[in-house]
Amino acid sequence: MEDTESTNTSLDDKNEEEFYENSARTTFSDGLMGLLRPAIEQLDERVRLTRISQLELRQQIDSLSDDLRKISDTQQIPLDFDVYVKKLMNAKRRVMMVNNILQNAQERLNRVHQTIAKETARRKSLLDSTLTATSTSSLP
């Protein structure tokens, strides 16, 4: 009977050590997540706003391009707007490329944010189960 008690004490000590080790790890990961989450959310918001701005710019380029074509078609003076239309189309293409890059970056940020949320939830459930196991094993 005494052997059982000494073994239980040893297991209790081991559970406490694991609890404190897991607690330290969880505290560290929570702190790290706390540092990263605001930066990721801020970056995500800025990417979203930039994409909106890029869309508005693309629409304005389309409108200006249409206006230049109309002016060119109605003018009696032989002005060559084709060069400017081509430049606008080139700018539109670049805006679309930047928009695609931003969209890919935002998708990656969303995946990182989801991974952080999953890891936080996993660690929280692990901590909760460790706390429950520790409190159950310490009962007489």
Automatic annotation (TrEMBL):
Species of origin: Strigamia maritima (European centipede)
GO biological-process terms attached to the record: endosome to lysosome transport; intracellular protein transport; lysosome localization; lysosome organization; regulation of synaptic vesicle exocytosis; synaptic vesicle exocytosis
Gene Ontology CC annotations of this record: BLOC-1 complex; BORC complex; synaptic vesicle
Coiled coil residues, start to end: 88-122
The organism's taxonomic lineage, starting at the top: Eukaryota, Metazoa, Ecdysozoa, Arthropoda, Myriapoda
InterPro entries linked: Snapin, Snapin/Pallidin/Snn1
Family of this protein: Belongs to the SNAPIN family.
Any one GO molecular-function label of the UniProt entry: SNARE binding
Highest rank taxon of the organism: Eukaryota
Key words, A-Z: Coiled coil
Protein name: Biogenesis of lysosome-related organelles complex 1 subunit 7
